[in-house]
Amino acid sequence: MTTVQSPPAPPTAIRPKVVARTGLYTVLAANAAIVTWFAVQAGFASNALVVIGRFAGLYAALLMAFQLLLVARLPWLDRRIGMDRLTNWHRWTGFGLLWTLVGHVVFIAFGYAESSSMNPVSQLVDLAETVEGVFRAVVAMGLILVIGGASARWARRRLAYETWHFIHLYAYVAVVLAFTHQVAAGTTFTTSSAATAYWYALWAVALGSVLLGRVVLPLWRNWRHQLRVEAVVHEADNVVSVYITGRDLDRMPARAGQFFLWRFLTRDRWWQANPFSLSAAPDGTRLRLTAKAAGDGSAGLRHLAPGTRVFAEGPYGAFTAMHRTRPESVLIAGGVGVTPIRALLEEIHGHAVVIYRVAGERDAVLYDELRELALAKGAELHLVTGPSVPDRLAPRELAALVPDIAQRDVFLCGPPPMMNAVLGTLRELDVPRTQIHFERFSLAG
């Protein structure tokens, strides 16, 4: 594929990830301060447990809004942080939200029970029956508990992605119920018009971000580009490349190293969204993905007919040359993880060393393309073959291939065990963390 390349951007000392991460932390901290100020202005109840419970509820509402921002898939954040890291933050924020909500319910129930003759459980039931909005909050709490249980590692491993995703859709129901509870029973809503305006604005931004990133942008881009399958090429026994064309692809903001969530609109596949990386840098006329048959979704690609309509969400991911900090680089691929590495080699500037780790030469998908690209760009290419033990990318072996690796950016993509091993090797070789770029391709919320 002929690539339309923009002029190389020099490595920058101001890292995009740091800018985005700092921005998110600042926004969260600033809103926490605002929430605290409004709560103090509203005054304190005479019961300390109720006061603690109210603060826990306010911070839980703030975390819930922050959760929506993390899963909104906003391009500015995604390109700088990456969907995998946003997903990880979403997960840990979710557990923080869960325990904050539990604290809100427990402290409120015990606090009100202390002032009455009821036990905490009876007090909670009484509040749900007599105070507007409390029953909705109890339902929202139950939904959050179910979602939290489905997010635990032991449960996540046993659930199909579609099932897990369907359960998580109830989070939006919980958000609406929690918000209506806050409107009906929240002290700041009833005592301060400024606080009321603040909370309405906060929820509008959070829900608006989800609507923009998850609905409006995908629909608009697919209407604009009208994607279709152009051709399906068999690269190996169990590997195919799918070429996709459409309108105005030169205006699609995709970069080498990114991925899309692809839906092929056939009768039996339209409901499946599969994440596949671009295996060639976008050239303004077509996109290409290359996938190994690892499940029903990827195995069915070989049967796609030219002309099949495609609905693509994305591009997603921060695994791009945008994050370079050094003029020279090392690209390390394992197995089918070569797809974004091959695309990056096409786009990246400066001297590059490419290391392709596979079990045997017949497993080296796209190797001929890599060899031609390396020759054209003056890059070094090393094909490392053999079983996983002994580790052929251990510190001594990797240092022999790239003696100056600590002075280069390192882009890494491959199976999780291989990536974990290489990341350990890079730490032993004292490669600075700021120069190590990798992404674990996962779906956010």
TrEMBL record:
GO molecular function: 2 iron, 2 sulfur cluster binding; flavin adenine dinucleotide binding; metal ion binding; oxidoreductase activity
Segments crossing the lipid bilayer: 24-45, 51-71, 92-113, 133-155, 167-185, 197-217
Cofactor field: FAD
The FAD-binding FR-type domain, residue ranges: 222-322
Gene Ontology cellular component terms for the protein in this record: membrane
Top-level lineage group: Bacteria
Keyword Lipid biosynthesis belongs to the record: no
Membrane-protein topology: Multi-pass membrane protein
InterPro entries, per database record: FAD-bd_FR_type, Fe3_Rdtase_TM_dom, FNR_nucleotide-bd, MRET, OxRdtase_FAD/NAD-bd, Riboflavin_synthase-like_b-brl
Compartment annotation: Membrane
Keywords noted in UniProt: 2Fe-2S, FAD, Flavoprotein, Iron, Iron-sulfur, Membrane, Metal-binding, Oxidoreductase, Transmembrane, Transmembrane helix
Name of the molecule in the record: Oxidoreductase
